[in-house]
């Protein structure tokens, strides 16, 4: 009996779950690649073939970073992604999805690879990799690593939806525009989804827009995917029949052109149609509207806005311009007014769970040239969407546009930040900030000044026409990622300045066009650069 028990112990240990350390995505990829690489002979020809993930963006990111990590090992011969793409195009294969081992093996043979590597990352953030020998189909190595949640993982895991302009079928165009804004805000805030940026959307749809019948055309869908990377497109039409407003929506798979969901709902008035568009859009996405018992306040002027700012509330801005420098006489315990040489400027302090929604038709401006437009200190869970922030007067100044200090969990989406502020963004001792589908432009010193902060993610954002000094300055910060961003027509010393105390600064899938800076980065070794494109820049293209 004792002998039987001793023999059973190793078997029991082999099947018991082992607690795994949770790692940031880039470190999880690096560890997985090291594990696979250690099992392969030197100079083995490897093709990193496909990745299965909740979204194509996450799959593409994992694929690119996996290739980059294998190259960094300096042990194996890695097949170029461009060669894999040629085979993909020839076979009309979707290599970012689920591909059988047999199909992958035949593709590996066409590429001359000895080993093929496939990856997967699921909703539980478990990253798996396996290496298969092409000649024998033998499984030669596997790896499984748990990925810790982060702003980057969350952003890449959300399905990307292109929200087309609502079509006014016999209705007022202004009503269709209002409905479009509500739908866009709903998609942007929906759990598991993201909306395509305004600039990408305009490039893909142009003035003509797109209809449901257009989505049956493969060339149209391919153009949309190329320009936006969208997983789906949300089309809507509003019309009036017999005194009732009818709002129709269709969610279409961009890859296949099939309708994923659709609905037509009736409303008694234009106002109720605007109010109901949000819930209808969420139902089209298959998202149950979250219960939100926060106080919702609609404001129409500066006084109402300054009075409304506080904890646990949603502020909806009516269309218009809000010059907040005129609200200094409004009493609010959450706002401190600071004299910035040429005028008083508001600093919002100790506020949490605050959402301010502009719907794309509201501007928050400030007159003093030396102050930040909006400054948040010791705040948490702040969401800003669909708002333009800027200064009322052009020229050089000491203040910037948006500033966050000693804060956490900040979300900014579909916003425009412009000068004359010194910097578009000032981020100090702040953790968990995301900037998504925004435009930062025309600032007099630089684009962003970041210090002692972490877990910052900038996605699908355009940084342009700004300059004089270092454009993006990053000091003593960790896990800062720019994904799918565009840097265009900026000038100055260096596009990026990263000091020795920074860790995990990553640029993935970004474009750099017409920048007139002396250098790309003071120390390129401090940046992980993957999938970038360069065109018409004065600085030498980094190798």
Summary tags:
alpha/beta; globular; Rossmann fold; disordered N terminus; Pectate Lyase C-like
* Tally of separate domains: 3
- Proportion in helices: 10-25%
**What is the total tally of β strands?**
38
> Mean of residue pLDDT?
85
Question: What characteristic shape results from the CA principal axes?
Answer: globular
Percentage of residues in DSSP E strands? 35-45%
Tell me the major beta sheet.
17 strands, parallel
Number of helices: 11
CATH topology group of the largest domain:
Pectate Lyase C-like
Whole-angstrom Rg: 25 Å
Indicate the low-confidence ranges by residue numbers.
1-19, 94-98
CATH superfamily of the largest domain: Single-stranded right-handed beta-helix, Pectin lyase-like
Structural description of this entry:
- The protein has 543 residues and is α/β, with parallel strands linked by helices.
- It has three domains: 16-148, Rossmann fold (3-Layer(aba) Sandwich), CATH 3.40.50.10610; 155-285, TolB, N-terminal domain (Rossmann fold), CATH 3.40.50.10070; 295-535, 3 Solenoid (Pectate Lyase C-like).
- The chain contains eleven helices and 38 strands.
- The protein has a 17-stranded parallel beta sheet that branches. It has a nine-stranded mixed beta sheet with strand order 16-17-19-21-24-27-30-33-36, with no helix packed on it.
- Helix 3 (56-73) links the parallel strand 2 (45-52) and strand 3 (77-78).
- Helix 2 (25-37) crosses helix 3, helix 7 runs parallel beside helix 10 (270-285) and helix 8 (198-205) runs antiparallel to helix 9 (218-228).
- The chain is globular and about 75 Å long.
């Amino acid at each position: 009996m004792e002998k039987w028990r001793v023999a059973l112990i190793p078997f029991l240990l082999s099947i018991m779950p082992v607690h795994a350390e949770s790692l940031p995505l880039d470190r999880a990829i690096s560890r997985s690649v090291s594990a696979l690489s250690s099992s392969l002979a030197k100079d083995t020809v490897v093709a990193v073939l496909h990745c299965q993930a909740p979204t194509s963006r996450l799959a593409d990111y994992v694929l690119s970073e996996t290739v980059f990590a294998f190259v960094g090992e300096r042990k194996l011969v890695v097949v170029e992604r461009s060669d894999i793409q040629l085979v993909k195009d020839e076979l009309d294969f979707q290599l970012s999805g689920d591909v059988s081992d047999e199909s992958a093996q035949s593709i590996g043979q066409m590429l001359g690879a000895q080993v093929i590597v496939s990856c997967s990352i699921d909703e539980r953030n478990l990253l798996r990799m396996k290496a298969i020998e092409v000649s024998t189909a033998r499984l030669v190595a596997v790896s499984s690593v748990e990925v810790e949640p982060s702003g980057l993982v969350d952003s890449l895991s959300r399905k990307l939806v292109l929200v087309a302009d609502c079509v006014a079928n016999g209705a007022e165009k202004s009503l269709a525009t209002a409905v479009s804004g509500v739908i866009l805000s709903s998609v942007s805030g929906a759990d598991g989804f993201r909306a395509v940026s305004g600039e990408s959307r305009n490039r893909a749809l142009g003035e003509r827009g797109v209809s449901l019948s257009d989505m049956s055309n493969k060339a149209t869908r391919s153009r949309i995917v190329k320009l936006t990377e969208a997983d789906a497109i949300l089309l809507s039409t509003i019309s009036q029949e017999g005194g009732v407003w009818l709002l129709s929506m269709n969610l279409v798979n961009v890859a296949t052109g099939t309708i994923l969901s659709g609905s037509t709902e009736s409303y008694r008035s234009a106002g109720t149609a605007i109010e109901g568009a949000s819930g209808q859009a969420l139902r089209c996405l298959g998202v149950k509207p979250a219960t939100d018992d926060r106080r919702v306040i609609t404001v129409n002027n500066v006084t109402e806005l300054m009075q409304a700012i506080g904890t646990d509330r949603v502020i909806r801005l009516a269309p218009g311009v809000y010059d907040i420098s005129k609200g200094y006489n409004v009493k609010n315990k959450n706002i401190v007014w600071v004299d910035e040489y040429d005028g008083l400027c508001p600093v919002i302090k100790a506020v949490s769970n605050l959402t301010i929604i502009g719907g794309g038709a509201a501007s928050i401006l400030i007159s003093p040239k030396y102050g930040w437009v909006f400054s948040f200190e010791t705040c948490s869970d702040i969401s800003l969407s669909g708002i333009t922030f800027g200064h009322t007067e052009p020229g050089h100044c000491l203040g910037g546009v948006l500033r966050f200090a000693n804060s956490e969990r900040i979300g900014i989406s579909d916003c425009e930040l412009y000068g004359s502020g010194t910097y578009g963004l000032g981020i100090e001792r702040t953790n968990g900030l995301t900037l998504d589908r925004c435009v930062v432009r025309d600032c007099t010193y630089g684009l962003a000044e970041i210090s002692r902060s972490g877990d910052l993610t900038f996605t699908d954002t355009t940084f342009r026409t700004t300059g004089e000094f270092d454009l993006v300055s990053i000091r003593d910060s960790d896990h800062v990622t720019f994904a799918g961003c565009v840097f265009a027509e900026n000038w100055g010393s260096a596009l990026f300045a990263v000091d020795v105390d920074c860790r995990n600064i990553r640029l993935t899938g970004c474009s750099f066009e017409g920048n007139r800076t002396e250098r790309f980065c003071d120390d390129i070794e401090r940046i992980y650069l993957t999938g970038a494109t360069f065109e018409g820049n004065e600085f030498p293209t980094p190798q």
